[in-house]
Amino acid sequence: MKIQQTAIIEYDEVDSNFQLKLPMLFQRFQRAALHHSEIVGLGPQTLMQNSGAWILHWVLVEIYRMPSYQEKLTVQTWNKGAKGVRAERAFSLTCDGETICVAESQWLYFDLERQRIVKIPKEAIDPYTTEKENVLNIGAVDFAVDRRFEPEEVLSLSTREGDYDSNGHVNNTVYLEYLDTLLKRSHFGSGQRNRVAIQFVKEIGRKVHTVQVGASKESASVKFRFFKGSTVYAAGFIETS
User: Fold this and answer.
1) SS3 166
2) Domains of the chain: residue spans and CATH
3) Lowest mean pLDDT: which of 69-78, 135-144, 186-195?
4) What is the pTM of this model?
């Protein structure tokens, strides 16, 4: 089953160039995935009542162009299937029939009662049905990121109450807000962003009041990581042109 959402790009979603902000792009992914879950009767409230939750493990995005203010954006998403503890989800974004962005993602199923990742229950995945269509040639394997590089630029940020979601962790899309802040305040912020990849390693819980975001330039890409001391919360890269 494929589902889609269509909405106009609003003023609060765009940057000074009137293009969709990177964090808002990721919010569109999240909303579409949640909408799919609600349609099949497995929304977050229902999952929590059954001691379950989905955790985003990684996402890889290819951006052909960013949509602009007041453009009508359609996000389509579908479940690609699951095996063991991992499930795959794809996204395709279009404006007036033009594909402007595609993404693949991997999700883990978390047992809230046992506080650990578990094999995905049949009843938690079957209602989505499965579409095998790929949008990227990465298959169902993890891609490599550098979690321990020494960043050239580091920005310390305070977590805010609004950063946390219903699971009590900093929401995945907020990481992109932290990253966007670093990029805009450093010399890494220029250039067209063609590919963005991020792996989530450890949740940022309520007891974490400050987080460091670090980045380094490497050829035509920027490596980044979110950390505090020796603890790494997430890492990834952005390819630019």
Assistant:
1) coil
2) 2-128 (3.10.129.10), 153-240 (3.10.129.10)
3) 135-144
4) 0.94
